[in-house]
Amino acid sequence: MSSAERVTLTAASCREIDNWIAKYPAEQRQSAVMAALRIAQEQNGGWLHQDLLQAVADYLDMAVIAVYEVATFYSMYELEPVGRHKISICTNISCLLCGSEEVVAHFEKSLGIKLGESTADGRFTLKEVECLGACVNAPMAQVGRDYYEKLTPETIDALLDQLRRDAS
Hints:
Blueprint: H1 11-21, H2 33-43, H3 50-60, H4 64-73, E1 85-90, H5 93-97, H6 100-111, E2 124-129, E3 141-143, E4 146-148, H7 153-167
Parallel strand pairs: 1-2
Antiparallel strand pairs: 1-3, 3-4
């Protein structure tokens, strides 16, 4: 990739990041790193290109390795392209005890992919995550910013039908 093709933050993304920076003392602008990564990821269609990690680091006056550490620690950030609908399935203890293995199996069968894969048409990605913090309503998954709780084969089928309609 030539320097002319570098992916960078848009003006709109910078304005949104500035709103987050303003929430912290001036010397703590790095505290906005998680919001900045989310904004950059949304700008780039759901994943963080290496150039965007560098752009966030430059914008927040951070070492790029520090930005990379945040991006790789949290499961909401993606360093490779994902499907239009990223389905994050909790497989931690509460969800496991309430049937997350069956939830995973149903999603995999319905979509024809395994955890960590995307459908050939780029519509769906299945991702295993540790905990989404909705243990009382396990098993559950997250699509975009929405939580889907107490999942059953029927609710999964209804969810996938809705997402397929939205994706067409």
